[in-house]
Design brief:
The protein is mainly alpha-helical. Helices cover 80% and strands 0% of the residues. The chain contains five helices and no strands. Helix 2 runs parallel beside helix 5, helix 3 packs antiparallel against helix 4 and helix 4 packs antiparallel against helix 5.
């Protein structure tokens, strides 16, 4: 009998608890975090896929409704093989488009989920850093304010990402 490999029997473990940032590194890490948050928001602003799908979906819905009515009329008598092929070609184009959108939305939702998790870990790290800074006597107020500003900005960016995720999930269900 074969023995199970360690990876096959291992249970998933929770991610390690966040490690606070050493106070000497707060300024540099805060700058890095701010740049990362700006990049995230810029990426969301430049992502036109969701907006394009949302706009085009209404037009495709109207096209499908019109096609259903037209195709019902075309199918009521005995349609020719050429008519059936033409109808199939039209529906195939719509199906291809909807399949592409579904794939794009699934990829976007997955990416947004990863970003939300990353932002949650980042906020946890900064909250641990704040607790460390508050627990040590003599931490300058400017450092505490800097840490609090990063926490607030991280939460704000996470809210923006969560709203986009909600938009993507709603589109997936239409």
């Amino acid at each position: 009998t074969a023995t199970p490999s360690p990876s096959a029997s291992a249970t998933p473990t929770a991610p390690p608890a966040p490690t606070p940032i050493p106070l000497a590194e707060v300024v540099a890490q805060a700058e890095s975090a701010a740049a990362s948050l700006r990049d995230t928001e810029a990426d969301l602003s430049s992502d036109q896929i969701t907006a394009a799908i949302e706009t085009e979906l209404s037009a495709v819905t109207r096209e499908i409704e019109a096609r259903l009515a037209d195709d019902s009329r075309a199918l009521s008598p005995s349609p020719s093989l050429d008519t059936l092929r033409a109808l199939e070609t039209g529906w195939k184009k719509i199906d291809d488009n909807l399949t592409r959108w579904e794939r794009d939305l699934r990829a976007s939702a997955s990416q947004l989920e990863r970003k939300i998790s990353e932002l949650a870990r980042q906020a946890d790290t900064w909250e641990q850093t704040l607790a460390l800074a508050q627990g040590e006597g003599g931490t300058p107020p400017e450092v505490l304010q800097r840490i609090e500003a990063v926490i607030a900005a991280t939460r704000q960016t996470r809210a923006v990402v969560e709203r986009r995720r909600a938009q993507v999930l709603a589109l997936q269900n239409r």
